[in-house]
Amino acid sequence: MIRSELLAALGQDYPDLRAEEVEQVVDIFFEEISQRLTEGGRVELRGFGAFSTREREARKGRNPRTGETVDVPAKRVPYFKPGKDMRRRLNDG
Hints:
Blueprint: H1 3-13, H2 19-38, E1 43-45, E2 49-56, E3 59-62, E4 69-72, E5 75-82, H3 84-92
Antiparallel strand pairs: 1-2, 2-5, 3-4
């Protein structure tokens, strides 16, 4: 599902909201998750899963075009761990 499909689905489920209001709610939702992760926090949505960040150490990589070895710096990356209910729904059918 892409963002526009999400907006359309929410618009159908909540016809009393204008399209601009639905878009604003979605924007706020994703901005709050992004902001919390940027601050090093964790976002847990019960029954769905938890978003957090993980540290990746610096490493040696390889440029696939030239084969040249390059240094890849350490960085934080987003991580999602599905909740128990989500795992059950995915595996039970």
